[in-house]
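Example S7 (structure tokens).
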């Protein structure tokens, strides 16, 4: 709970409260909330102005706001155009995020309980509230390749534990934790001791795409092409070039055989045991989205307006483990 007063050109008092669990009527973030009660000079006005006082990703917050500067006959139209309300909204959002930050620092399970109930709200906040994206980022929690099942950790802890030579924050999207753990995309990263975040909530990938970076560390989807695994020595670069030349005829033949099904065929150092994988364009969809779109197209449920975009960005790259590729010579 946070009780505070704002004084100056604009004056108001407020009490904000974060519940321990989501009420049944508030499971849907899109649903109308009546959690914030607006008073003007201690006269109750309405509890239907939540969207004017707080963004929808904070609809779980309950509270009372008492303003000295709004008229008693305040209406939704007045709220939408009022500078007073804009200032109040900004202060309420910041106070709420400060309160969540304080909860996250407690040495108990309070924040874990909060995250289980309202974590998706904060992910939506990263997507929609660009102004507070840097404040919201440390509040995010994800399971990872170094956490126990059901446990999660924040990006601050991830960065603190990054080994020498790791320059990015890695993540992979999957339907379940088990699918993420068994993903062939993890092979080289696990071998190097790099931690990978598991995005198993449908909203996670959009959240990460909007966040883009954290503490000057780029967020990298390991299912995309051009994966950076750290600097290669001159010897390693020469070896890679030699392998590419050795298998050039084979990869060219594979590309010709597969046609438009793939963008290109390459040998790759990102594999450690799996013979081959499909990776998507750096600016395209992840493999999970690619498979979902392919399935939708098979059942003819992809809207025509998206068909051209789908064809443009969904052609994957076939990556081959060099030692599993036979030497191939065209006659």
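Recovered sequence:
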């Amino acid at each position: 709970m946070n009780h505070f007063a704002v004084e100056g050109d604009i004056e108001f008092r407020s009490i904000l409260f974060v519940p321990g669990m989501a009420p049944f009527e508030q499971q849907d973030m899109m649903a109308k909330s009546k959690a914030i009660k607006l008073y003007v000079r201690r006269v109750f006005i309405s509890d239907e102005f939540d969207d004017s006082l707080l963004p929808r990703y904070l609809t779980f917050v309950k509270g009372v706001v008492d303003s000295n500067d709004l008229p008693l006959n305040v209406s939704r139209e007045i709220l939408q155009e009022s500078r007073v309300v804009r200032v109040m909204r900004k202060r309420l959002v910041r106070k709420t995020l400060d309160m969540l930050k304080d909860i996250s620092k407690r040495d108990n399970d309070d924040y874990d309980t909060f995250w289980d109930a309202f974590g998706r709200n904060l992910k939506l906040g990263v997507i929609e509230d660009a102004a507070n994206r840097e404040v919201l980022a440390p509040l995010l929690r994800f399971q990872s390749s170094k956490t126990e099942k059901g446990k999660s950790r924040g990006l601050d802890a991830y960065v603190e534990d990054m080994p020498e030579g790791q320059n990015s924050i890695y993540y992979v999207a999957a339907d379940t934790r088990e699918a993420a753990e068994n993903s062939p995309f993890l092979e080289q990263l696990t071998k190097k001791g790099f931690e990978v975040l598991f995005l198993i909530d449908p909203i996670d990938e959009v959240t990460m795409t909007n966040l883009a970076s954290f503490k000057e560390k780029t967020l990298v989807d390991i299912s995309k092409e051009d994966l950076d695994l750290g600097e290669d020595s001159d010897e390693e670069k020469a070896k890679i070039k030699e392998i590419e030349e050795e298998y050039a005829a084979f990869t060219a033949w594979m590309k010709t055989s597969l046609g438009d099904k793939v963008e290109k065929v390459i040998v790759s150092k990102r594999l450690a045991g799996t013979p081959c994988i499909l990776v998507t364009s750096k600016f395209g969809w992840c493999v999970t989205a690619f498979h979902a779109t392919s399935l939708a197209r098979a059942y003819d449920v992809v809207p025509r307006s998206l068909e051209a975009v789908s064809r443009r960005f969904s052609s994957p790259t076939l990556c081959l483990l060099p030692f599993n590729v036979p030497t191939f010579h065209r006659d």
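Notes on this example. The chain has three domains: 2-136, 141-221, 234-324.
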